[in-house]
Specification:
The chain is an alpha/beta fold and 230 residues long. The protein contains 8 helices and 11 strands. The strands form 3 sheets. A 5-stranded parallel sheet has the order 2-1-3-4-5, with helices on both faces. A 4-stranded antiparallel sheet has the order 6-7-8-9, with helices on one face. The longest helix is centred in the last third of the chain and has 15 residues, at 193-207.
Length: 230
């Protein structure tokens, strides 16, 4: 089996060490993290071919992280092996329905774990090509990193660009402030939930001249979504 780049995401340091150590003994290039926020940053930076992710993370449910990974064009081809010590709780079904390639229960049976890693890495990766993301008259070009409304350029700060891109890529899904902090801010400890509100207001003000501010919607008690259904 060729050397592969693998990211291990597990909030339990002991479990993470066992998994990472087993993978390194197999000769793989392994990086580690203990939460979803830093995992997303590592995924963008390293683009591993496999993520081994636990279902219970301290900042975001692992299956929810998996679902978001599968909705991202740039990460869809990555293989994902989920782990959990709550096999009887429905984690297996949730993980597989959300797009996991395989699932392993804890405590790990190391020979079985290694066999499942080999099986995941042996599967052909899918390729996806998505230059632009559009919704209504709003378009984001992933290559030039430009956002437009009805063809007119939107002057977005880097974080505003990432927020709009994330919401457009996940249309009609409701995200809490906590989720947006994880996915857009990488859970930067220097920012709080109200920062999300400020950036949402900024996006709306930029879209308002085109009549598209109504697409950035507040879902009372839950969070925000981008939807063409007003």
């Amino acid at each position: 089996m060729p050397v592969a780049s693998i990211l291990v995401v597990d909030g339990d340091a002991g479990s993470r060490a066992v998994i990472a150590g087993s993978l390194r003994k197999m000769g793989h290039d392994v990086s580690e993290t203990g939460n979803a926020g830093s995992a997303l940053a590592a995924l963008r930076a390293r683009r591993p071919v496999l993520m081994v992710c636990d279902c219970a993370l301290p900042d975001l449910d692992g299956v929810e992280l998996l679902s978001d990974v599968r909705s991202n064009d740039e990460l869809q081809s990555m293989r994902v092996l989920m782990t959990s010590d709550r096999v009887a709780s429905g984690d297996v079904v949730s993980a597989l329905e959300s797009g996991a390639d395989d699932f392993v229960g804890k405590p790990l049976n190391i020979p079985e774990f290694i066999a499942r890693v080999d099986a995941c890495l042996s599967r052909p990766a899918k390729t996806f090509h998505s230059r632009a993301v559009s919704a209504g008259g709003v378009t984001i070009d992933n290559v030039s990193h430009r956002a437009t409304a009805d063809g007119s350029s939107l002057s977005l700060a880097p974080r505003e660009y990432r927020l709009l891109l994330f919401m457009l890529t996940n249309q009609d899904r409701v995200f809490s402030r906590r989720q947006l902090l994880v996915h857009v801010w990488d859970r930067d400890t220097s920012v709080g939930p109200r920062t999300v509100d400020v950036h949402i207001r900024r996006l709306r003000s930029l879209l308002e001249p085109f009549g598209y501010d109504k697409y950035v919607q507040t879902v009372r008690g839950s969070g925000y979504r981008f939807s063409l259904h007003v």
